[in-house]
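Re: that chain you flagged

S.,

Sorry for the slow reply, it's been a week of failed gels. I finally had a moment to sit down with the sequence you sent. For the record, here it is as I used it:
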Amino acid sequence: MRCHFVILSFVTLFAALVVGNPECPNTLAFYNPNLRSACYNATWFILPIAKSSVQSLVPFPLLTPPFSDKTLFPKGFPANTHPVVVATGYQNDIRMANLQIQALMAGNIYVPYTDRLKNGKDAFNHPVQNYIGGVNGKDIEGVVPSLVGTAEGTNIVLSSFAPNNDAYAPIASNPNEFTAEVKPIVLSNTFSGPSIKPEAFDFDFITARTPLYTSHTFHALINQPIILTNGLCQRNPYYFNETFAAPVLRSGNVTLYGPTAGSVPSALAGKYTTQGGYSASGENLGYNAESCASAAANADPKAYQ
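Prediction finished late last night. Pasting the structure tokens below so you have them in one place:
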């Protein structure tokens, strides 16, 4: 199983089974029994961050995104910046073969348009940090997934999420306003008191009246193959073609809180106001790790639409 960028051994992960109410169904498992599949109800935001700051975090060149493509960037993009994607949500009905995990919370920070092959054309996602935790207050259920995922090529931090039983929480109406936050667990204390949970990032958003991006923008960015720490890459496409996808373009504020416990690099820290986001339920397939050239050559163009 992977939580957006998390590769997990299902035999090991089955011990971390958690119980929660599914937010969206997984209809891909029947057709792809030998692949990890799930449904991810999440919100993604695109942040414009100084290109020099982003490049300092990525050990490969950055491609120049197609900012002139109005289907992707209808309002352009700030000069001398590069997009960074931040996401959090509720991942349900995680399956591979006969193994199933009911639900996990997941969050991510990653850099699209990374030139992993250094060929000037094939775009990859470079993970900056990944977060995982159990649902319904059972943060500790994320321990095994975080350890296994890190060992298999993805850096993952055990974390606490708010809310921890849904993708986001309502806080106001007229207009409807929602929040979500991710807190890495620096010191877990399940017996005698509270754990230490500094903030990694949070969202505060509404439905966009004048969206900065299109659904196609998010599909094109989040579905680029993922660069792993072991020299390989992974195709990890999301599909939003089912009726329950319920896509909504958002506008909101995103705060990245800096390098607390190695969570968010200082190069990304800051408060980003009135940014463009996307809430939707996407069905996800995690392929086996492969060469990066193979991942680029076999990426599904339908997922980018």
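What I noticed first: Residues 143-151 form the longest helix (9 residues).

Talk soon,
D.
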